[in-house]
Amino acid sequence: MRTLTKILAVLIGVLVILFLGVQAYPHEKKEAEVSEVGSWQFLWDPGGWDEHSDTPPERVLHSLDWTMMDEESMPPSRPIGAAWAWVRIDIPRLDWAIPAVLIEKAYARNVVAYTEYRELFDSHRQDRYAMNELLLPLRAEDAGSSIYIRLQLTEERSGIVQHIVFGSFYELLTVYLTHDMLDIMLGGSFVLIGIVMLICALFLNRSYVASWLSLSFVILSIGLLVVSYSPFLFTLYPEYGRMLQHLFDIALFTLLPSFLYFFQLIFGKGYKNSILYLSRFQLGYSFLCLILVLVNVWTNERFFSIYYLLTTTVLGVLMIVELLTMLVCSVVYSLQKNKEAWIFNAGLAVFAGVGVFELFRYYATEEQYDLYWWKWGMVVFVISLIVVLGRRFTETHNQVLQYSKELEMFNNELQHAEKMEIISELAASVAHEVRNPLQVTRGFLQLLGERSATSEKAYIDMALDELDRASGIITDFLTFAKPGAENVKILSIAEEFRHIEGVLTPLASIHHGQIVVDIAPDLYVKGNSSKFKQAFINMIKNSIEALQDEGQITIMAAKENGEVVIRIRDNGTGMGPEELKRLGEPYFSNKTKGTGLGLMVTFRIIEAMQGTLKFSSEKGAGTEATIRLPEASE
């Protein structure tokens, strides 16, 4: 049931992420709200240009070289010396109170937009980021005229402008603001989480710092990548474009070695240390890329072609190799049936799979594909990391609790062992010192009994009986002190209980009870035969003495998981929880003349045979003793 709940929770989470991704993905506008433009005109401009002009030049307005284009068309061949191009968009009827045009993508380093009579937008961009999102307010009198967009093209590609729609300014403003706002929210959340984790790292135990810091840098880098990749900030703050571009590169250079190092800490060095070598190589390569960033800034991008080759093309290929390597390793680790590995590998598989797919598509389309789904793959991956981290914390907490319980149990066992050791030494010492005087006293009493009158002989017999009882107690003390490892041999459980049954059946009959024996054949244990009988006779005698009218004692023995399990069950008076806790303590007994030494000796004998003895009982319902002994071969 719990597994089904977890599966449903994971499915719901995946559906939510897919829903958000689909909803945030650029989609078509409703015809009733906007007027879409499917084609426009294109013109190369090889001539000079007045940077302070507020209108397009006459040669552009009246040129006969305009070419029709759409999102799938490639522009005509670039004339020699032409660095700028023009796009002319015809303005339809403007049926809105405050009309505007939204151009979701304009691929150019610098963009200037005009109508025939005034300037609408000037980016003044100094960075190389070539994606722009434009929202241009219009006037009602602009209907029927054209919008002229001047573009500084860094590469020839299809779809110089894409997704052009006319509509209400306020409706398009909502689309403009929310189009990439989700990227900013996702990235900002990751950045905040990463910063908080870095602060928390100051208070962690040293053993957790390495994995915690690597995860912190992974999450922080992901957040910076998502934020700095969004065209929203480049369009809204063009003066910070170069800084945002460098921030994206630095975040990418930090993410890759952090990611590999975290993977190595969680799951090891990989097949033939592949993850370790990749991690070290990526760390060195990322350091080289950071140096190239500084050189690129210091030389004012004089060697940008080399910088682009090493930090984009080569790094992209290296990313594909690293992601594929981790995917292969994740499949191997998932075969270990580790739940944390499954969670981690599921998130990694989604992130790496989406990343490899988009990188292949990006290079296959000659870098014209806009990476989109990678950030949602990162969201899934970060969630899997958080789940793994939560499980680690939970398991650590449970381990601490388990260790505390085990420590308490070990302390109790140690105290019990120390007490038993003291009692054993004391018992052996007292027994040896007392037995000899008792034997001498018994001999003298026997002599007196032979010479005494009949009236006095009864008292002498009583004294001899008490001496015999005292001798039995001393024998129990000696057995407890030294349960006996001598004369150890292979014992047949069935044979031993045949003798025990013969000895105790008359006693059970006196108490109006019966003994039922059900012992599987071919059960063998190692031990001393006399001690074995002594232990089980003590337990069965206790059961007999606890019987009520028409009572029954059932003795069962069978093999379970490589052990011989013997159960002695009676339907006698039973015991309460407090009495059960005290079983085996010296001088604790439910019988009037009992000393508790018999059961204490039984525990010691079973312990000497490397076995365990446990009791379960209920008042008025009887008692069951369960003895587990290591199985021995005949």
Can you characterise this structure?
- The chain has 634 residues and is α+β, with helices and mostly antiparallel strands.
- The protein is built from 16 helices and 17 strands.
- The strands form 4 sheets. The chain has a 6-stranded antiparallel beta sheet, with no helix packed on it. Strands 12-14-15-17-16 form a 5-stranded mixed beta sheet, covered by helices on one side. A 4-stranded antiparallel beta sheet has the order 1-10-5-8.
- The longest helix is centred in the middle third of the chain and has 78 residues, at 374-451.
- The chain starts with a helix and ends with a strand.
- The relative contact order is 0.05.
- The model is unreliable at 27-32 (pLDDT under 50).
- This is ATP-binding protein.
- Keywords: ATP-binding, Nucleotide-binding.
Strand content is: 15-25%
**Main beta-sheet strand count, sense and barrel state:** 6 strands, antiparallel
Helix content bin: 55-70%
Tell me the span between the first and last alpha carbons.
Answer: 46 Å
Count of runs of 4 or more consecutive helical residues: 16
Number of strands: 17
The mean pLDDT is: 78
Quick overview:
This protein has 16 helices and 17 strands. It has 634 residues and is α+β, with helices and mostly antiparallel strands. Helix 9 (304-334) runs antiparallel to helix 10 (339-364) and helix 12 (454-481) runs parallel beside helix 16.
Which properties best describe this structure?
16 helices; 17% strand; six-stranded antiparallel β-sheet; 634 residues; single chain
